[in-house]
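During the no-cost extension, the postdoctoral fellow (Dr. R.K.) reprocessed legacy sequence entries with the updated structure-token encoder. One reprocessed record is reproduced below for audit purposes.
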Amino acid sequence: MSATYKKIQVSVPDAPVSEVLPDRITFYVDNRFTTKQVNRIRQMIGVVLNNWRNHFDELNNGAHRSRYQNCVNKYARFNLAPVWFDEKLSNGSAAAGVQMDGFTTMIAVNGFDRAAKAYIMYQKSGSSTIKGMNASNPEKASLSVTINATALDNTSVSTIFLGGSLQHAWLHREGYRHPIGKYISYFAGEASMCVMRGNNDKTSTPANTYTKWLD
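Re-encoded structure tokens follow.
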């Protein structure tokens, strides 16, 4: 039986960016997700969008670097640039700035129907949490991901952790890469762990607490 999808829309928060922003972004969600699961997906999207808006708000309010940039700068060393970016990036802060600009583009192309439809596909169970297939052009790539429904029902994992997992899947869509299973010191891993920690510094919490929810 082929999957059927229903359309959902999520409001885009006001952010002080130069690009014209849509009022909302649109997703086509597999009908096998329950209403409760879809509500959690909406909250996870909200986590990513709020981190994005906060980044630009903080810069607009005079910060030299956003909290997201400061966090990424402390920990990200490798694969700082997406595949479409030709220049060398000197540090994690610069990399986080490029990433946020690319994500702004992805929001715009989704909201103004310039990219393929964004599907949220269903996986009943398995070892992955949220998967985003590698893509390489934020001006064309959709925000499509596959989500493990079991993870959505797991009350022991916070929605901010799942939001970080979603952000990681979208980094793959935006053009970021990391060796399979390696997240520490790689931009795509550290950026998403920053989201999971609310951009706070690392503590004695084992890395696996975060990385087990990535990919």
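The beta strands are 5-11, 24-30, 119-123, 130-131, 145-148. The chain has a mean pLDDT of 97. The remaining legacy entries will be reprocessed before the final report is submitted.
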